[in-house]
Amino acid sequence: MKTFTASLFAVAVLISVAPASAVDGGGIFPFEFRRLELDNGLRAYLIQAGAPGQVAYVTLVRTGSRDEVEKGMTGFAHFFEHMMFRGTKKYPNFDGVTEKMGAARNASTSNDFTVYHLVAASEYLEAIVDLESDRFQNLDYDEAGFRTEAGAVLGEYQNSAASAFAVLDRATREAVFEHHTYRHQTIGFEADVRRMPEAFEYSLSFYRRFYRPENVVLVIAGDFDPAAAESLIRKYYSDWQPGYQAPEVPAEPPQTAPRERTVEYPGRTLPIVSVNWRAPAWSATDRQAVATEVLGRVGFGPNSAIYRRLVIEQQRVQFLDASFGLDRDPAVVSLTAMVSDPADLKAVEAELLAAAASTRDQPVDPVQLQATKSNMKYGFLMGLETARGVAFGLIEAEVSTGGIEAIDDYYRTLEAVTAEDVQAAARAILADPGRTIVTLIQKGGGA
After folding, report:
1. pLDDT 10s digit of each residue in the chain, 447 long?
2. Segment 372-379 long-range contacts (CB within 8 Å, at least 24 positions apart)
3. DSSP character for 292?
4. What are the φ and ψ backbone dihedral angles of 138, each rounded to 5 degrees?
5. 219 neighbors 129 (Cβ within 8 angstroms)
């Protein structure tokens, strides 16, 4: 996060006390919105969209497992997803208050962020602003409560460890990343999760460092008065003290040779092969980054030749998943297949590599490319039918840029992507030196 000089800070104050700026929804994003930035760095977006009488209140903390840089202290971003529901001195029973509103509420943590949301009747907007601003500034828990929640997180880890896909994900991260914090899963390394009950003081410091206004973006979408909402945000959030300092996340050096790993799963499972390639960070304006996301759909999605052959016609795999979404930092894109016959595992792997090679060697069909781009665009628009859908549809831009304005940039870039761009992305990304193949097999079952 940028450190302001005294003169720049004075300018920021002048901007923040002026009325929020209105932005016309003239791009692909169809709704006008107000953008508000307080002098403490909190940014809020007010969007009138969604069902009558309903409001979605989304708080995005731009901290995820990538920010856990201290050795032995992984899993705390996810841990606070749990702790933030334990209440404050003012509102010790968060669940009780929200249940009386009839509010739907939840949270989730990823590599790059933690997001909290409430959806309730619009009449409760002030109560929600009061409640949410209070817990983000004044979360209150003692050591006993901390230990209880840490024990619950350990139970969650143990449950996830029973999943073949969690085991595969853990093995893939450790094979691909040697330095970057994407090496550990969101829930953290097992040893760190087991030590977590002893880290009460550290948890307090984590909350003080990352739960700061400069690191938070609010999106309020639904049926409400934007001017009234702006006044409420100023009233309840202006005293929140800044102090966020971005951690120094270690960069991952380029991968110079292909890697392969095999992991044994102690339960019953069909074999799973995951082919991963180093990928760029998410960008709204980088043609290669956007073309990489298009590549995943057009080259390996349900309408692709490889999908039709392996999944539909020959039924050699139970599923084929192309995960080509990009992260805040350079990570991976992947093809993952569960193979129906263990004896066919290596042959399926070869088919996946051949399909990747074909995207490097041959341009995609222009008709299929245009259909894919249209599907991406209209899929985004169809997701904006509810207030919650509007707020959640903007998360990707918020995480990477701190705002929602990049949405229109992204879809302008998408529209400009050509078949040549997709082929260039395939040549740059789906290259052998940056490839890591991880295979999961049943323990004792052979390959």
Report:
1. 332 222 222 222 222 334 566 665 568 999 999 999 999 999 999 999 988 999 999 999 999 999 999 999 999 999 999 999 999 999 999 999 999 999 999 999 999 999 999 999 999 999 999 999 999 999 999 999 999 999 999 999 999 888 999 999 999 999 999 999 999 999 999 999 999 999 999 999 999 999 999 999 999 999 999 999 999 999 999 999 999 999 999 999 999 999 999 999 999 999 999 999 999 999 999 999 999 999 999 999 999 999 999 999 999 999 999 999 999 999 999 999 999 999 999 999 999 999 999 999 999 999 999 999 999 999 999 999 999 999 999 999 999 999 999 999 999 999 999 999 999 999 999 999 999 999 999 988 755
2. 372/294, 372/297, 372/298, 372/301, 372/303, 373/294, 373/414, 373/415, 373/417, 375/297, 376/293, 376/294, 376/297, 376/414, 377/28, 377/411, 377/414, 377/415
3. H
4. -135, 30
5. no
**Structure pTM?**
0.91
CA 91 → CA 82, 85, 94, 334, distances in Å?
A: 16, 10, 6, 44
